[in-house]
Amino acid sequence: MASAQRRSAAAKRIEELASEPTTAKALAKLIYYSAAMIVTPLVTYNLSMTRFVPYLYEKYGTEFLENPTTCSGLFAILSVQVVLVMYVISALREDGSSPAMKRE
């Protein structure tokens, strides 16, 4: 019974935090960038594997581009890094007017 009360108290606290505008905005941003970190490398890998790397191999013909898997994997890794940099930049641009910042 005590554990059920603790769970309900924790659930109430989470609901309170999520109802605050700044917290809701931060959660939405976290979900958005998490989805982008999943979708972006998959799309980048598939597009570069089927279109971009074969085009580069035909044009330049280097040994590095013979294996499209390696090159496409590198492009996917770079796309994740771009999403991470965008997340950090958006986090730094926030005005810092959250209640946690005001308490300090």
From TrEMBL:
Pfam families the record matches: VMA21
Biological processes per GO annotation: vacuolar proton-transporting V-type ATPase complex assembly
Name of this protein: Uncharacterized protein
Coiled-coil portions: none
Gene Ontology CC annotations of this record: cytoplasmic vesicle; endoplasmic reticulum membrane
Keyword annotations of the record: Cytoplasmic vesicle, Endoplasmic reticulum, Membrane, Transmembrane, Transmembrane helix
InterPro entries: Vma21
Chain segments annotated as transmembrane: 30-53, 73-92
Species per Swiss-Prot/TrEMBL record: Bathycoccus prasinos
Source superkingdom: Eukaryota
